[in-house]
C-alpha cells in the first residue's frame, strides 16, 4: 500500500510538471495560513502559494507546522488541486484533492519517535476577494495517512499578483 501512495505521488508530480507549459498567464497568490490540527489538537501556522491555470483549475502547494501538544508535533507539505466555483463576484467555493507528505515527532518518555508518511487530502474552502489584490480564505481538509489520519482547519490571507 505504501508503494501505491508513493507511485501515485510520483505520477501527480510528473503530470503537474507539464502543466505550466500548457498554461496561459494566470493568477498567482502567496499567503499565510493559521488554524487547528485534530491530531495534535493544537495550532497550525504556514505558508501557501496558488497558481490558477484556468477559470476552474489551480494548483495550491502549502507547507505548515503543527505545534507540539501532548508530546506530538508535525510538519506537512501538501500539493493540492483546487476547482474554484464562482458563487458571487467576490466569493468562490472550491473543492480540493491532493497529496501530502507529513513528518510526525512523538516525544513521549525518554524516547523520540519520528514517522514520515505520504497520504492523500480531500476537502474544500471558501475565499473572499476583499480587494483586487487581497484574498481572505477559510479551508478544511482531511489527510488520510496510515497511523496518523488528521483534519486541518485554516484561515488565510493572501496577496494576488
Describe this structure in words.
The protein is mainly beta and 161 residues long. It has one domain (2-13, 27-160): Porin. Helices cover 13% and strands 66% of the residues. It has one helix and nine strands. It has an eight-stranded antiparallel β-barrel with strand order 1-2-3-4-6-7-8-9. The protein is globular, with a radius of gyration of 16 Å. The N and C termini lie far apart (40 Å). Residues 18-24 have low confidence and may be disordered.
Report a brief summary of the structure.
With 161 residues, the chain is mostly beta strands.
Tally of helical segments: 1
Tally of distinct domains: 1
CATH fold naming: Porin
Percentage of residues in strands: over 45%
Assign an overall shape: globular
How far apart the termini lie comes to 40 Å
Calculate Rg over CA atoms. Answer: 16 Å
Name some characteristics of this structure.
1 helix, mainly beta, globular, Porin, 8-stranded antiparallel beta barrel, 161 residues
Topology (SSEs and partners):
Elements: H1 2-22, E1 28-37, E2 42-54, E3 57-69, E4 72-82, E5 85-86, E6 91-106, E7 113-131, E8 134-144, E9 150-160
Antiparallel strand pairs: 1-2, 1-9, 2-3, 3-4, 4-6, 5-6, 6-7, 7-8, 8-9
